[in-house]
Amino acid sequence: MEESMEEEEGGGSGGYEAMMDDQNHNNWEASMDGYRRLLPPQPPPPTSSSSSSPREPPGVQLLAVAAAATERKGPKEGLGPPPEANGVTMMMMKSCDAAPAKAATAPTPSATININTSTSKFLMNVITIEDYKSTYWPKLDGAIDQLLTQSPGDYIPISYEQIYSCVYKCVCQQHSEQMYSDLIKKITNHLERVSKELQASPPELYIERFNLALGQYMGALQSIVPLFIYMNKFYIETKLNRDLKDDLIKLFTEHVAEKHIYSLMPLLLEAQSTPFQITPSTMANIVKGLYTLRPEWVQMAPALFSKFIPNILPPAMESELQQYAAQDQKLQRDLLQNGFARGDQSRKRAGEELAYSVHIRTNFS
C-alpha cells in the first residue's frame, strides 16, 4: 500500500515537472518568434553553383550588422525605433541607395533625339544632281569664265576658297564625272570662240593676237588646275589615268593651234627675216609655246626654233663657223640701221662707273 502511494506521489511530481517544462518551452518559442519578426530579413545563403546571385557589397553587410547591433542595444521591449546612425553609417546608406539608382537609369529620350537630329543633318548635306546643276556648277562656271578671260596681271574678284570647297563637295558626293565633263565642254566652247576670232584677224595683228590668246590661256591654267586638284587626284588620275593639265593643254592644241599653225608659221618666218617687225619677247613666247604644245612642229622651221630653244640643231661643225659669223655681221648691220650705234651701251656703262668712282673718292677722302 505504501509502495503504491509512493509511486503515485512520484508519478504526480514527474507529471507536474513535465507540464511546467512544456509551458516554458512554448513561452520561449513565442518570444523567439516575436524577436525574429523584429530582425530584418536575411538573404539566403550563397550556393556553390555558377548561376547563383552575386555577393552583396560590403556596404549592405555592414548595414545589416549595424541594424542587428542597434536592436540589441535598443529599449528593453525591442519595439522602439533604432537610435540615430552615425555619419559613416548614413553616408554608406546614401551611397548604397544611390548606386542601384544610377545603374538602373534608362537612356533618356534626348539621346535618341540627338541621334535622329544628326542623321537628318547628314541627309540634308547630300548633294543631288539637281543641286549640282542649279547651285554648285553655276559657281564654278562663273569663276572659269573670269579666269579664261582675264588679262595678265588683272585682279579677279573671286573666292578661291569657295571654289575649291565646291569642287571638294562635288567630288565627295560622286559628281566627279559630271563635273569633269562640264569643265571640258566649257573650255572647249571658249577655245572655239578664240579660234574664230583669230581667223577674223588681219595679217598684221595675227601674230600679236595669237600670242595674247596663248598667254591668256596658259595663265588661266595656272589657276584652274589647282582649283580642280581634288578632282584631278581622285578621278582623273585614278580612273582615267591622265592629268588635268595635260588634258587642258591638249584642248588648246586641237581647237586653236592645229587650226592656225599653217597660217602662223609663214608669218613668223617673215617676221624673223625683218628685224623688229615684232618684239623679241613675242617671238620667244610663241615659239616656246608651240614647242610645248607639240614638239614635232620643230621640223617646220628648225632654224627659227633653235634661236629660242637649245639643242634643236645638231652641234656646230668647224666648216659652219664662217656662216655663223656672217649671220652675226648681218645682225649688227640691222641694229645700226635701226639706230643702235656700236659701243653706245659699253661707253654708257663706262661713264657711269667713272662717275661712281669719283663720287666715292670725293666722299671718303
UniProtKB/TrEMBL annotation:
Reported function: Cell cycle associated protein capable of promoting cell proliferation through the activation of CDK2 at the G1/S phase transition.
A GO term, aspect molecular function: ubiquitin protein ligase binding
Ranges in a coiled coil: none
Protein name: CDK2-associated and cullin domain-containing protein 1
Domain of life: Eukaryota
Composition bias, Acidic residues: 1-10
Gene3D superfamilies: Cullin Repeats (1.20.1310.10)
InterPro entries linked: CACUL1, Cullin_N, Cullin_repeat-like_dom_sf
Keyword annotations of the record: Cell cycle
Family (UniProt): Belongs to the cullin family.
Any GO BP annotation: ubiquitin-dependent protein catabolic process
Chain positions covered by the region annotation Disordered: 1-60
Domain Cullin N-terminal: 137-293
Assembly and oligomerization: Interacts with CDK2.
Pfam families in UniProt: Cullin
The organism of origin for this protein: Monodelphis domestica (Gray short-tailed opossum)
